[in-house]
């Protein structure tokens, strides 16, 4: 048996933040941001909206996309996030409750920008093991709350949002069946992209004295951009090549490359390494920024909703993120309803 994609949905918070908005408080400009990242605008949470609310909205849309009785069929809810509501407990049980799914299995996983690929694999594992017949899997991020908005090297990059898919038990040869996965990590480079404070390492080191005991900057993301770029291109390329080999696909078989939207230059560099033409490379980073675990499902929903991604198209997914971690997967796109995210 296989995990088959049966529904998809996305949600973006209403607050739009343009490059011009950022330029009002940062030493930067619209041209500087666009030429280095490909981003023109992104969405920020506000007014109390956070990861859980984003996840609920995207999850509800994915359930509607799947079928009218999808709510009654869900056996498990998995939420991938790097910006949890709280350190404890996980947000997934609350999301399941708010969606009216009852006392189903529910848990979070954290793999930063690779979260959607890792979560797909974990959700597929629940189905393969017989623990669930239908899984609602959501990538949701309010990561801008962990970014120093006075840091011009990180503030322009990230946006908030959520993307969700419904996976059901099915046959490995039917459209929507998730193909081979390739996952990897390198923890020796974890400090290249990290939020130093807030976890047990910092709390143990300062004797549990709390927020004021560490430098304010440690509560926000730190990023080493140049080495991350090199690592991202290398590992996404290798991972994509590996999963294509295991799927017995050639590059010519790929109709769409849907890569994590970290930076448009990374996406294009990976596509160039794979020798994929530009017209088969999906991009939406210009209007959403880097939404971490929500990136890939939001992009899938976008190109499906506008009719560019069609039933029968062969799709290559790939992502890279903090950890360091990376992953890839393939699927043949099924006939599912996708609604544009405004």
Automatic annotation (TrEMBL):
It catalyses: malonyl-[ACP] + acetyl-CoA + H(+) = 3-oxobutanoyl-[ACP] + CO2 + CoA. Residues 261-265 are annotated as: ACP-binding. This is Beta-ketoacyl-[acyl-carrier-protein] synthase III. Homodimer. Catalyzes the condensation reaction of fatty acid synthesis by the addition to an acyl acceptor of two carbons from malonyl-ACP. Catalyzes the first condensation reaction which initiates fatty acid synthesis and may therefore play a role in governing the total rate of fatty acid production. Possesses both acetoacetyl-ACP synthase and acetyl transacylase activities. Its substrate specificity determines the biosynthesis of branched-chain and/or straight-chain of fatty acids. It comes from the Bacteria. Pathway: Lipid metabolism; fatty acid biosynthesis.
